[in-house]
Amino acid sequence: MKNLILTLTLILSFSSLAQGTKRKKNVVIKYKQYESFDLGNLEIKGKIIAPGDLSVKERQRKRFSRPLFERDDFDPEVRRDIQNLR
Amino acid sequence: MKNLTIILLFTLSLPSFALVKKAERYYLKSKSRNKNAYIAQELYKSRYYFSAVVFAKEHLIEGKTFSKEFENLLEELVLKTGTMSFYGLNEKVLSRYPSPSLHFIRGLRLFNYKKYKGAISALKKVPRDHRFSPEALFMLGSAQNLVQDFASARTSYEQCTKKAESLENQSKNEKLKRYFAIVRESCIIHQARLLFKERKYAASLKAYDNIPKTSYRWPYILLEKAWAAYHLGNYNRTLGILVTYRSPLMTSYFFPEAEVLSSLAYFKLCLWDDSLQLIDQYYNVYRPHSDALKSILAANKSSHTYFLKMLTRPIKEMESLNPFVRNLMTQVRKRVKFSLDLVNYKKAKNELKYVNKLKPSAFTRKLKKAIEGGVSWRTKHLNHYIKRQMFSFINDMHRFSYEMFNIKLEVMSLQRDLVYNNRELISTRSRGSHKNVSRTSNEHFFVFTGEFWGDELGEYSFGLKSNCKRVKKIKEINTKALKESGEENKS
Lengths: 86, 491
Known about the structure:
The structure holds two protein chains of two kinds. By secondary structure, chain A is an all-alpha fold.
């Protein structure tokens, strides 16, 4: 039984190999020389889940201001006054 | 007449000479525990104050006895020779005795070392009726201020003002009167500074107004008043107060910080061109000042006498100096500490002359050595004081130059933002108007006609309108486009 299956498989594979070599010789691929699409007539079925138009919103620029000179106290002057007293 | 004067002087100097002899005898023979205190007392009586300090300090270091008489002597010696005479004593010695004079010196020492809590506890020990109490209260208030105990600081300053005022009224000596007036005014200024620190700017401005324009402190507080007005958002007043420094009467005063504040005020009013102009002016004016100072400092920084000699030169000889350096010298000379230290330095030098005339002995050699050391130390101290003032001025100039640069960068950044957003400020240069001047009920309005009047100094205000409104930059583009198209058509 085993030998029979092996023999059958060999015969079948030989026949398919012979067919393949025959087909290769006959294949001629031709591309379309001109094709036009009428985009207006194209219909796409489905639901719109994204915004309809393409837009880029300007991002609010973060402004980092420089710490300008500020006077919160006169502590250095307080110290200096004592040094200049006596 | 001449002979009479000589005889009189000789007769007057005889008792003091006798007392020095007495002190010398005691120094050579006595083995008493109070030997040094006694010698100090005798030298004090003979008006050899700096010599007396030598023995008073030795007595304190020995730590054998301390009497009320010795405390009185200490008080007198501090008054006659200055706090610096005992300033060098170490902490242990200064805190060992129940002496208000030493507590005062210890408080000053700890304050200068930034040990404010220690200073507070030392200064609290100075009795309220003591001669040094106005200064002690002033220092106490300042130490409390710096440790953020504002309520106690306010009380101390108020007590200082009252005490100094009463001593000012009691004093018959004009110099002493002026000294207590300065202490009183200093306490008032510190109260104003305290309010400023608490962000009570309007109250602070009111407190500053208690300083009369005739006061030597007044030019210095203008800058502080300008800051208070700035924090209140009254930029026109800030600019007005600061313009006072441009008056001919104020030529010897220059504050780099005032230029920065003016520039900031213009910046806040969005008058960027004015702000930038001030910044350029700052570099142009202060760079030569800085260079002049640097050249002097670099050549003499290691000298222990150069600056003192320069300051004590007659005014005629000072004329060769850069006017700016001359003015800086004038500012230093006006400082209370400098005046007191200079007087004591001269007194010490004078006493050294008299000590040199005494008959040579172990006693006089000791005195000579100690006073010579004292004079040398005082020379270095005064010289260092002047040098430090100069260095701190240069540092200030550089520090504020950096702040000016920051303002310039910020202006440029804002100008760039305007361009990016296709906007512009409402006007390129706002004009002044009295409508923009905000004033209180006791302030009057007069138009400035290019003259500075003494009574008006410090009362100026600008009338500039804020230029901060931004508008769309459409007009300019259209007109430009039109012009360009017109030119094209013509060609």
